[in-house]
């Protein structure tokens, strides 16, 4: 199988590419940073900015599967400029892929496009499976548009799967990359009231879920990619401190401090979603890491 990945140089993309190549698949990664004839661990890198139309679009139709992971980091203050970059790097990228597929579908059967549980907005204790309505706010509105852009590929006869990712936990990148050093310095505290839900997934499970979704041609539309057992922020903080053997039960950081320091982005940390991976479970997907303690212990051990 030939797989084309946007954002394949990132945290999730690197894991996915390695796993696919181990199975003998050919991987092409689109990157703004690629040089001429560069490679990433055996994957072919091609140069191009997915936000811009360009010669890279002609390569899309040569592949069987497209995985769309590109997107600028949301972990910063959402200034006007940051919002533009966060939105365009997802929505324009997706539109450019769909334009390429509409011009020439070639052999592409499947578009696996990323989305996020931020789609649901802050929803308290409500259990959210894939049929739940979209929420409110910048991220919810962005993910709605991101998903809508991807779904347009169905008009070209391509199966579209929208992977709504929870917080991805892994040894080399993502949220833990920022959190572990802080916890090791004794600065791991619950955020706000600590009661907000956190829906997470171990990176190994995410990669397996993506492979599963590529293989299962009967599944399309939104799929919640989160572990079956969600945790509150307080439970997560305790589990991470335990996995690291770090100090526990530090006082929580008050919401107003987070809001003052981070502006609207603080909402991502202070509001959560209790997301259910209904489609994956109904389809028989088996998670390697269902519980947060075992996932964090494995990651901390691997990371050293
Ligand atoms: N990690 C998580 O916990 C999580 C949770 C929910 C959703 N997601 C979503 O899943 C996707 C992959 O996540 P990740 O953690 O692997 O992300 P990542 O490590 O930040 O990598 C994303 C990739 O997107 C490309 N990119 C960054 N800024 C861009 C820009 N301004 N314009 C165009 N391309 C840009 C980069 O590729 P080049 O520099 O090579 O071009 C980068 O390697 C993202 O869309 C993210 O929003 C992630």
Relevant terms:
304 residues, alpha/beta, two-stranded parallel ribbon, 14 strands, binds NADP nicotinamide-adenine-dinucleotide phosphate
Summarize the structure.
With 304 residues, this protein is of the alpha/beta class. Helices cover 39% and strands 18% of the residues. It contains eleven helices and 14 strands.
- What would the principal axes of the Cα set say about the shape? globular
Number of strands: 14
CATH H level, superfamily name of the domain at 2-171 and 201-226 and 276-281:
NAD(P)-binding Rossmann-like Domain
Rg is 19 Å
Associated small molecules: NADP nicotinamide-adenine-dinucleotide phosphate
Mean pLDDT: 95
Distance between the termini: 34 Å
Instruction: Walk across the major sheet and give the strand order.
Output: 3-4-2-1-5-6-8-12
The poorly predicted ranges are none
* SSE arrangement, N to C: EHEEEHEHEEHEEHEEHEEHHHEHH
Molecular structure report:
The chain is of the alpha/beta class and about 300 residues long. The protein has a domain at about 1-170 and about 200-225 and about 275-280: NAD(P)-binding Rossmann-like Domain (Rossmann fold, 3-Layer(aba) Sandwich), CATH 3.40.50. Helix content is about 40%, strand content about 20%. It is built from 11 helices and 14 strands. The chain has an 8-stranded mixed β-sheet with strand order 3-4-2-1-5-6-8-12, sandwiched between helices. α3 packs parallel to α4 and α7 (about 235-245) packs parallel to α11. It is globular, with a radius of gyration of 19 Å. The two termini are about 35 Å apart. It binds NADP nicotinamide-adenine-dinucleotide phosphate (NAP). The site of NADP nicotinamide-adenine-dinucleotide phosphate has 26 residues, from α1, α3, β6, β9 and α5.
């Amino acid at each position: 199988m030939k797989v084309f990945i946007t954002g394949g140089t990132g945290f999730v993309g690197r894991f996915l590419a390695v796993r696919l190549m181990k199975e003998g698949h050919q991987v092409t990664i689109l990157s703004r940073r690629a040089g001429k004839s560069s490679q990433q661990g055996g994957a072919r890198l091609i140069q191009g900015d997915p936000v811009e139309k360009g010669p890279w679009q002609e390569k899309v139709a040569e592949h069987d599967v497209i995985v769309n992971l590109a997107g600028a980091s949301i972990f910063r203050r959402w200034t006007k400029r940051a919002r533009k970059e966060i939105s365009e790097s997802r929505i324009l990228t997706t539109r450019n892929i769909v334009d390429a597929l509409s011009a020439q579908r070639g052999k592409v059967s499947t578009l696996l496009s990323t989305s996020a549980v931020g789609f649901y907005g802050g929803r308290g204790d409500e259990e959210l499976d894939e049929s739940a309505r979209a929420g409110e706010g910048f991220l919810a509105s962005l993910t709605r548009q991101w998903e809508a852009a991807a779904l347009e590929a169905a008009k070209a006869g391509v199966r579209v799967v929208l992977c709504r990712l929870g917080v991805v936990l892994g040894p080399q990148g993502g949220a833990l990359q920022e959190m572990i050093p802080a916890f090791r310095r004794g600065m791991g505290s619950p955020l706000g009231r600590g009661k907000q839900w956190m829906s997470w997934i171990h990176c190994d499970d995410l990669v397996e879920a993506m492979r599963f979704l590529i293989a299962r041609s009967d599944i399309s539309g939104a799929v919640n990619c989160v572990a079956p057992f969600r945790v509150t922020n307080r439970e997560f903080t305790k589990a991470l401190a335990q996995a690291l053997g770090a100090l526990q039960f530090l006082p929580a950081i008050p919401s107003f401090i987070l809001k003052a320091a981070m502006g609207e982005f603080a909402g991502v940390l202070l509001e959560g979603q209790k997301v259910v991976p209904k489609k994956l479970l109904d389809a028989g997907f088996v998670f390697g890491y269902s519980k947060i303690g075992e996932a964090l212990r494995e990651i901390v051990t691997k990371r050293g």
